[in-house]
Amino acid sequence: MSTARDEIFASIRRSLGVTGRERPRRDVVTERIARAPAGVVPARGAVTGRTRIDLFIAQAEAALATVSEVDAPDAVPAAIAQWLRAHNLAATLRMGADPRLSAMPWGDTPLAIDEGPSDGSDLNAVSHAEAGVAETGTCVLVSGPHNPSTLNFLPDNHVIVVQAADVAGDYESVWSWLRERFGKGVMPRTVNWVTGPSRSADIEQTMFLGAHGPRRLHIVVVGGRGETPAS
Amino acid sequence: MSHHSTSPRFKDNAHAALHDVQLQRALSNVRVGFIEKRAKAAGKLPEFEALRDSARDIKDHVLAHLDLYLEAYVAEVEASGGVVHFARDAAEARAIVTAICREKGARTVTKGKSMISEEIGLNDHLAAAGIEPVETDLGEYIIQLRHETPSHIIAPAVHVNASQVEEDFRRAHTHLDATRDLSEPVNLLTEARGVLRERFLAADVGITGANFLVAETGTSIIVTNEGNGDLTQILPKTHVVLASIEKLVPTLEDAAQLLRVLARSATGQELSVYTTFSTGPRRPEDLDGPESYHVVLIDNGRSSMLGTEFEDMLRCIRCGACMNHCPVYHAVGGHAYGWVYPGPMGAVLTPSLIGVDKGGHLPNASTFCGRCESVCPVRIPLPKLMRHWREREFERHLSPATVRSGIAAWAFFARRPALYRLATRVGMNLLAFAGRKKGGTKGRFRWLPFAGGWTEHRDFPAPQGGTFQERFARERAGRPPKADAEPAATTAA
Prior knowledge:
The structure holds 2 protein chains of 2 kinds. Chain A is of the alpha/beta class. The N and C termini of chain A lie far apart (56 Å). Chain A has 7 helices and 12 strands. In chain A, 31% of the residues lie in helices and 22% in strands. In chain B, α9 crosses α10 and α16 (343-354) runs parallel beside α19 (382-395). Chain B is globular and about 85 Å long. The chains are: A alpha/beta, B alpha/beta. Chains A and B meet through α1, α2, α6, α7 and β9 of A and α2, α3, α4, β1 and α8 of B.
């Protein structure tokens, strides 16, 4: 226990006029962390079915990502190969060990596949998202051997695959899902919310894409076309 | 990147800024873009005002329970394998970071954009210790090459024009082809990307700030558009987070509330491109990410602001909306404020952190137009807090003698209404007579005693005779009596 720590706590408590041992104060804090109230959640995300997928796509495109849709996981490799070809990009792709990606028929495409984290020399990478958020067209990625975080930032072009069923309306739904998966209060090393490709407006407030992260972000939504419009 | 302050010379700084042609050209980018984009983003979200209330309430709640949320946060960071350090002041924080870098044998350190790092003057200190700090945010990189401090908290190089960046890059990147074309700003961006990519991959330690710290999970959050903060923290073996103690929020849900107002207020984006939640070092099964994770929690004057009239300032989430909407900032830019934090938030925070004796001029740099408060995402009453500092400055006899005697004279008359009316009537009639239209004078003064600050730059219009109170009484008498109350606009006059 360092002196600096003790002095900072003492100074805070002196300023607030508390000892830190007051039971009601401690209960308020414990209860708030346990309950994690949602606060104000925009109505925008409170849509379901096809309407939610449409919102996700519209918002992602507004953030300058491109989006394509396929009906089944088997169609993902061809969709990515086509996107790379359409943009005159190399037929290479790096990915992690995500079983959802590994199960896809990459051999049916001309793509040269590399596995594992990026050392900075890769042109293209694909990651599988944990979730999407329709509210802002955001993809949620978690670190680990399945989807190493370096793939999200080092390659020039990043493709994110997201299952339509994993597209949430709002951020709060994503926090619930992550708690179910990892446990309350537990997080993977890195959770990345990605909304569009990298950009900077630091020179004369004019925006250009591809500052340090990917110059292009392409999202492939799987299984969303069968969704029926919902009110 | 020194924390040395020129705030006491604000008047001279402002004067120089107004005559700086390059700066004035660059500032024209602030006056238009930011305001329009924020208004559009706020208008698109019906819940925006309710979210501002929510954001304010979350921060107030945290500040009232700061000791307990800090305890909970520290326990979670340690449970996830991270190390927490406490620093009472800038010197202690610098020493902790330097010790971590030395322990890791670090030669170069990459840095994500961090205002607290500017506040503690970290870069000069690291360089003096033989450790090279490399700023990786494009704006921060530009001003590091120029040996300048940021002039804006989210757009640090907003005072620099593209042609100046080209000169800086040609001077610094001598290993590149001298005949390359840098006439387009996008080429400058591409060049910085290439140069900094090598630095990212070679760095031994990565230092970022934190937009928020989450007590529930021990998570630090950074928000960027470039992705530099991410490359800074996932490539080196060690990630160091610098954060002041008021960055805490209780839960991930609370973070989401604040994130919904942050980007909209700052750049007018619905959300920044990269919002990153980092918890502890890499896990045993992970293939990338830092092997060690350190958080340096810095007080540097915050704990003493709690429980005072300046506590509201600790809600600040550093979005920059107040300066984007400030007519004074638009006119003089950020450097004139003389320390790390410019604009209205700087005018309130600077005297708290470096003393009213040094920062006391800043709260006077306000027209009290109220635009800063009207756009603040956490509803900080910035004009009121600036007024508090003015009162403190006056009480502590730090205001200049001319100001004090002027106010004393005004107070003498203000307490004697009959004398006040007589004096102003005589004064106005004298001025009206002296400044009456004759020959070529056009009813204006080119010079007036005690008003040199005004007449040096423009003429002072001569009064037309009579005082405001006389005219008010006359117009009120001439109006037919009404049963109901006067309209608000008239009574407010």
